[in-house]
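Quick board copy: two proteins, each given as sequence then tokens.
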Amino acid sequence: MSDTLTRQTDWIAAADAAAAQIALTAPLHDADDSFVADSYDLLKREGFFKAHVPAELGGGGATYAETCAIVRTLARACGSTGLAYSMHSHLVALAVWRWRNEGAPTDGLLRRVAAEDLVLVSSGGSDWLQSAGVAEKVEGGFRITARKVFSSGSPAGDLMMTSAVYDDPEAGPTVLHFGVSMKADGVKVLDTWRTLGMRGTGSNDVELNGVFVADAAIAGRRPQGKWGPLFHGISMIAFPIIYSAYVGVAEAARAKALDVARRKPADEALVSLAGEMETAFASAEMALDEMVATAQTARPGPETTNRTMIGRTLAGQGAIRTVEKAMELAGGGAFYRGLGLERAFRDVQGARFHPLQEKPQLRYAGRLALGLDIDG
């Protein structure tokens, strides 16, 4: 691929080519809990980290739907690569959406991503509405003390997009949003990622020990624990990208199970299991398609968040059930690591743990349906 990226780049074909290489090392990273560094090196060489940056800002001009498809394609080969890449991608996508739709001054960040090939790290999994960590006011800015868990891609990250809580004497507990260089004084990646699945994402804890953030670097402020425009925007834009990874894992498991099953006698039990798997996968795919369409056509707000989070639950449930049925359909061979279904089974469990998790999502949907305050 040329170093010069244009709107004409066939990002889906490029993702297919990258996935073929990434698939070769995916089992090795899973086996030894190592970060998918070689996958990230390949993706950087091929321009994927700037793919969604608009061409007029120096990027690859990939559409939002193409970005979701890239994640899904990569995750079919390696769930860890797809999921880790989705965490960078949703930060870029939110910045793109805000620049295009709200006139937000996020073009500087996007130009940097394109020009410097920056890899962004999200701390959203450890923050969400409450945020985590303390911001202490000092001359010219704040000192940040925090420990951010689930920081996917941290071994290769350049810039962490994160937040901390400042006890504002007038406004009360206030969440500050900012970016921090992963090379800044006081930033340390802790080797903590030993998990059931998605073992190659490098989602380590990141320690921020007295990290200085200048006043001018504070990108946003909001009341702690309250829904608002920023998080409705995050919900709408981020979760279709993230759950594309889980649908990709399920899609690969489905294909492997069908390959095995087609070599077996087609008795009624086999046919029924195949039908159950197909129905589960269809539910995941339909939910994801709805989420992607919503992100491209809707405006952020409580109703859009509700629609997206319902989709997140349905896509996750469908992906998990697809892999479960794939293992049953393949039979005893699925218990062996070599087939890859065992890894898919472990990787897809991660769909349970992103916000809004199922019970909080049900609560949100119920309160909205009953006309109650979603912050209640």
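And the next:
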Amino acid sequence: MEQDRRYSQMSDYELKQEIALLTEKARKAEQLGIVNEYAVLERKIIMAKSYLLNPKDFIPGEIYEIEGDPGVYFKIDYLNGVFAWGFRLGGKKDEEALPISLLKKL
């Protein structure tokens, strides 16, 4: 039995293969109407895509648009791995973490 590897241990090539596999599984789950499985697979895809990005390209203090949520902006306070910690502008003042693949430069 093969043990699953962490995304942080995978090469870019392996991550791209994983994303393709997860995308196919998500498409099938969506077609079959399995909403919960589709949501989990979408989150896995977002996480895998984060490991393809360089966290150094995301600057604390900068404001980014949140992918898939037009008109909503996120200000980064600090980064921890592939997560950007900060606040949504105009929203609740609760600190939250978003995978960097969800952030889009303005």
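Board note added afterward: The longest helix spans residues 12-32.
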